[in-house]
């Protein structure tokens, strides 16, 4: 899929991995529609990127909010003539908690719902609502491609640590839905790829204590450091451009396998 002169919808697009993706696709000529809760970051990213970027304040766990953002994006696409080439579902949260705590209290259903509603339901809902505007694209290239869906899982999809049942469930589900999504969309020439990063520098990992971060870095093979968001964005760019990437989950993790506990 060509990047230039296409519109990409990026949730979580004003921070961390989503922002690096937005900057990279934008630098390669894309229009970026950024859906995020963080309106302050949204305003500053739009002022940085200029007229090829639009921000929609959106909670991806709210179906109506996604519908409004998609409608706004479609109206923008009508103005620019730059069709929707892809979705990067990057909005995500972590809320650690043991399944049962030291007082024998089970993990609250509210915290489980919070994580699943954003990371899993929000991802699928965004994709579900964007796809009808991609299936009608004019096919491009020798293979007649219409678009690409890129999702973000995590190392926790495979080796979730203690305290990560909800997060691992949400990311494991995103990894699992990649192949059936690709199968559903194949007849339209739309691909689906998931990237599963290990630890990358972002607002999310800034909240980790120095001790936890160092411990995670120790469990990396090479390089022994957190990834930088630009390295993630480079893989997104390859996922957009390489038509053979479809229905698969790509680990981007410096051979890190997370230990049970830190
Ligand atoms: N950074 C890492 O080490 C790492 C590792 C594996 C997976 N991930 C995943 O990568 C994705 C991006 O995370 P990041 O590290 O860039 O974190 P980040 O906190 O920098 O960015 C996440 C963005 O999502 C937005 N967001 C949160 N809840 C939202 C909601 N309900 N609706 C809309 N937007 C919402 C936040 O406002 C923020 O801008 C997440 O899905 C995360 O789980 C991150």
TrEMBL record:
<dbReference type="InterPro" id="IPR057326">
    <property type="entry name" value="KR_dom"/>
</dbReference>
<comment type="similarity">
    <text>Belongs to the short-chain dehydrogenases/reductases (SDR) family.</text>
</comment>
<dbReference type="InterPro" id="IPR020904">
    <property type="entry name" value="Sc_DH/Rdtase_CS"/>
</dbReference>
<dbReference type="Pfam" id="PF00106">
    <property type="entry name" value="adh_short"/>
</dbReference>
<keyword id="KW-0560">Oxidoreductase</keyword>
<dbReference type="InterPro" id="IPR036291">
    <property type="entry name" value="NAD(P)-bd_dom_sf"/>
</dbReference>
<protein>
    <submittedName>
        <fullName>3-hydroxyacyl-CoA dehydrogenase type-2</fullName>
    </submittedName>
</protein>
<dbReference type="GO" id="GO:0016491">
    <property type="term" value="F:oxidoreductase activity"/>
</dbReference>
<dbReference type="InterPro" id="IPR002347">
    <property type="entry name" value="SDR_fam"/>
</dbReference>
<keyword id="KW-0521">NADP</keyword>
<feature type="domain" description="Ketoreductase">
    <location>
        <begin position="6"/>
        <end position="199"/>
    </location>
</feature>
